[in-house]
Design a protein that fits this description.
By secondary structure, this protein is mainly beta. The chain folds into 2 domains: 136 residues, Pnp Oxidase, Chain A, CATH 2.30.110; 105 residues, Thrombin, subunit H. A 9-stranded mixed β-sheet has the order 3-4-2-1-7-8-9-6-5. A 7-stranded antiparallel β-sheet has the order 10-16-13-14-15-12-11. The radius of gyration is 25 Å and the shape is extended. It starts with 5 loop residues before the first helix and ends in a 6-residue tail after the last helix. The mean pLDDT is 82.
């Protein structure tokens, strides 16, 4: 049930209203932003809610059966706080969102909380972004615990794997920018070549690129393929890759028992069950033959 002060409830019950929607966003890094669909900035509880142009949202609804109730927010990239590279980099992913109504003509009347949740999938198209707001029940749909699996459940270099990634990490720089082989465009954000990388093909496939300079400094991306010094990334980087950009690269692991044994000699720390029967074995039965 939504609650409101008596003054705000009286205002809403009147023939005309002066309501504005505000949304407060708290990113995972602790930075807080405020936005409103009103035509000028509003200051509420010491936070400035920036006026947004072209802001639209889907209807707010709550489901009583604990299934996930989502809300879509769409707007233009007309704020310095909302930069396309940051949205592509996932800086806003899983940020906490609070949506509420206020009387912009009398902010002292308080607010009505309409929705709480977190930012899920974000889509970008030209100068427009669309963000999915996932309700609080989204947390109840997450898998907790682990399943038996023939593949390793640890990540290469973590506390369970115990491989020293620092000893396997190589630092270098981009010597050329390449188009992706799968023809998905964004050539200067998808792939690059480093002539100093003379490792065998697929040596870095499945690994991780960590940018240490350039427009993508501090960001990471998984490697789709590595062939003759050319890297192709799984997803485009948020910003353009340029010749001379410095990076560090870590090898990957396909989490198979054979890779753990042959490539990393780390079978003692393998966190899977390579000999567990598959679905066919579990469902098999005597057929009398």
């Amino acid at each position: 049930m939504k609650t409101a002060t008596s003054q705000l409830a009286t205002h809403i019950a009147g023939e005309t209203t002066t309501l504005a929607t505000c949304w407060k966003v708290t990113r995972k890094d602790g930075v807080v932003f405020g936005f409103t669909d009103f035509d000028r900035d509003l200051t509420i509880d010491g936070l400035v809610y920036e006026a947004r142009t072209g802001y639209t949202r889907s209807a707010i609804h709550t489901i009583s059966d604990l299934s996930v109730d989502n809300l879509d927010i769409e707007s233009a990239l007309d704020s310095e706080a909302l930069a396309a590279p940051d949205l592509r980099a996932g800086i806003w992913d899983n940020a906490e969102v609070l949506i509420f109504l206020v009387n912009w003509n009398a902010l002292s009347q308080g607010k009505i909380i309409m929705k709480r949740g977190t930012i899920g999938q974000v889509e970008l198209k030209d100068t427009i972004f669309k963000a999915e707001l996932r309700g609080l029940t989204q947390a109840l749909s997450q898998q907790i615990g682990e399943l038996y699996t023939p593949n390793c459940r640890a990540d290469l270099g973590d506390m369970r794997c115990k491989i020293d990634l620092a000893a396997l990490t190589v630092s270098s720089a981009v010597t050329a920018v390449d188009p992706p082989s799968h023809g998905s465009g964004a050539a200067s954000r998808y792939g690059f070549t480093d002539t100093a990388r003379t490792e065998a093909d697929d040596y870095w496939t499945g690994g991780l690129v960590i940018w240490t300079s350039g427009a993508n400094a501090g960001r990471k991306m998984e490697i789709r393929s590595f062939t003759a010094g050319a890297f192709e990334l799984f997803l485009p980087m948020p910003s353009e890759i340029a010749v001379g950009d410095e990076y560090a690269v870590q090898p990957g692991c396909d989490k198979s028992f054979s890779t753990c044994c042959v490539r990393y000699n780390n079978a003692v720390n393998f966190r899977g069950e390579p000999h567990v029967p598959g679905t066919d074995a579990v469902l098999s039965y005597p057929d009398g033959k």
